[in-house]
Specification:
With about 450 residues, the chain is an alpha/beta fold. It is built from 11 helices and 21 strands. Helix 7 links the parallel strand 6 and strand 7. The termini are far apart.
């Protein structure tokens, strides 16, 4: 065959397909394509694993639904946290009776049921439990308080994380009442501070909340001594009670300041970045703080308290900005949170107060953050006014805590206005002052 004919020769397979031999894929090219495809599959698998892991992690931390528990929403290392504080849980006789069903069992979950979603939005929620608990009747709702133990479970289920237990009704059933209340709280795995079964136990609590270590300290006032023995609400602090409740005497304040200074320093050594001090003090039903409260608040600020939150007057009292003597750092003080829930109503005690302020309370929110040096501080304060709605059905009364809003009507709106008038200016002033201080 001539050279020319050889060059013009086309194999039969190419004549049938119309494809040139040089355009056919070689084994090497096929191998490269297979390698690329394999790498792509591997990358897709890795990506799927990463996406799945992220989804699992987010679901674990934040919960798979809006109804997830508060525990599931807590993570460490948050940029800021919110702590809610509310006032006195005071279980008067009508409240206890309202929680009893036809079988004689008790359940007080209805008290905070309509506002539990609000409680649940905070990282940590604190209430003052004012009284004692007992497991069997007779139950008493005034002048001393012995409430069915179920109240502690109901408070936990409503979203509260900590109960303050140092107040003027903590010894209503003497040592037995103090210890039984602690037992009920511990069984529900709630935090508490102010009382203890063991004298050697620390009289403060340092709690890690999402990476912020917060010190909690609470103290209640003592009443007049009886034969040289200190008393709370007239009940002697006997030797077996001594050292098991945090208290102070208005006539021995230098001793108190020394002890609270030691307590705050000890809390700091245990890691506390912030010290919140709760004071059970003041005069009942007075809409303004007294001289003792003002004097003591300033001293507590000078000793290093980062916020001072009061209770006992059973009405909301004003908020104020204090300044630490040395650093001039602003310190927030609310003289009284008012009642969280009680039966103190104008129709039952109009001659004592003559207004409805005892029906008012609040959820005080303190936001804790870090400055540009990493130091924790009380970044801001806010509040939600609350009102106790007493609902009657025949002879039964149920006391239900509701949110008092600016757009509410009737009694809730009146309650909102009363609380706002007392605390709004002080809270706004603190938020401005701390912002300016941190900028410096």
């Amino acid at each position: 065959m001539s050279e020319r004919k050889r060059r013009q020769y086309v194999p039969a397979t190419e004549r049938a397909t119309g494809r040139s031999q040089r355009h056919r894929p070689t084994k090497r090219r096929k191998s490269k394509r297979k390698n690329k495809l394999g790498r792509l599959i591997v990358l897709l698998v890795i990506l799927a694993i990463i996406v799945g892991s992220v989804y699992w992690l987010v679901s674990t931390i934040f919960g798979s639904s809006k109804g997830g528990s508060k525990e599931a929403t807590r993570t460490k290392g948050a940029s800021e946290i919110s702590i809610m504080h509310t006032g006195d849980v005071l279980m008067h006789t009508y409240l206890v009776e309202g929680g009893q069903d036809s079988s004689g069992n008790y359940d007080f979950s209805f008290i905070f049921n309509e506002i539990k979603d609000v409680i649940g939005k905070y990282d940590y929620a604190v209430a003052n439990y004012e009284g004692t608990t007992i497991s069997k009747p007779p139950y008493v709702g005034y002048p001393i308080f012995k409430t069915p133990s179920i109240i502690i479970k109901n408070l936990k289920d409503s979203g509260f994380d900590m109960l303050l237990t140092s107040n003027n009704h903590a010894l209503d059933n003497s040592l037995e009442g103090l210890e039984n209340t602690i037992k009920d709280i511990e069984e529900q795995k709630l935090d508490y501070v102010g009382t203890r079964k063991d004298k050697e136990k620390k009289n403060y609590l340092v709690k890690d909340i999402k990476g912020f270590k917060i010190g909690f300290l609470v103290y209640t006032f003592e009443t007049e001594k009886s034969n040289g023995t200190r008393t709370i609400n007239g009940i002697p602090i006997t030797k077996d009670i001594e050292g098991k409740i945090n208290s102070f005497n208005y006539n021995e304040l230098d001793d108190f300041y020394s002890r609270v200074k030691d307590d705050m320093e000890a809390a700091k050594k245990d890691g506390a970045e912030i010290n919140l001090v709760y004071m059970h003090w003041g005069e009942e039903y007075q809409l303004k703080e007294n001289t003792y409260q003002k004097k003591m608040a300033q001293k507590l600020a000078d000793l290093g308290a980062d916020a001072i939150i009061g209770g006992h007057p059973h009405v909301v009292q004003p908020a104020e900005v204090l300044y630490q003597e040395k650093t001039k750092k602003p310190v927030f003080c609310l003289y009284s949170l008012g009642n969280a829930v009680s039966n103190q109503r104008i129709q039952f005690m109009g001659g004592v107060l003559g207004t409805k302020h005892t029906e008012d309370g609040m959820f005080l929110e303190t936001t804790i953050a870090r400055d540009n040096k990493g130091n924790a501080y009380v970044k801001s304060v806010d509040y939600i006014p609350t009102w106790v709605d007493m609902r009657t059905n025949g002879g039964s009364r149920k006391h239900v805590v509701v949110e008092a809003k600016s757009n509410s009507t009737g009694e809730p709106k009146a309650s909102y206005d009363r609380t706002k008038a007392l605390v709004d200016s002080g809270i706004s002033a603190y938020n401005k002052e701390i912002k300016d201080y941190i900028k410096k």
